[in-house]
């Protein structure tokens, strides 16, 4: 299982709508509202071998009202 975190910048006033759409994706574990440069932080679990780039560009970035994303690949969880 691969763990990735996606920081998402939404169009103004659309963070809640975007979050509601993303929680329905089966790969999405958690969606958090955040302060700062990005509006949402999304934790995803992808099966081993699934292409992260295709998931982000085809399943996440194509959602309405997403202006920008920043993806972080997690190596190991502690505790």
UniProtKB/TrEMBL annotation:
Transmembrane segments: none annotated. Pfam families: AsnC_trans_reg. Residues 6-76 form the Transcription regulator AsnC/Lrp ligand binding domain. This is Lrp/AsnC family transcriptional regulator.
């Amino acid at each position: 299982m691969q763990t990735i975190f996606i920081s998402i910048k939404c169009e103004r006033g659309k963070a809640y709508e975007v979050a509601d759409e993303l929680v329905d994706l089966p790969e999405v574990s958690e969606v958090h509202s955040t302060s700062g440069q990005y509006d949402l932080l999304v934790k995803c679990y992808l099966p081993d071998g699934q292409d992260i780039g295709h998931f982000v560009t085809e399943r996440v970035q194509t959602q309405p009202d997403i202006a920008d994303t920043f993806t972080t690949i997690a190596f190991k969880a502690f505790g």
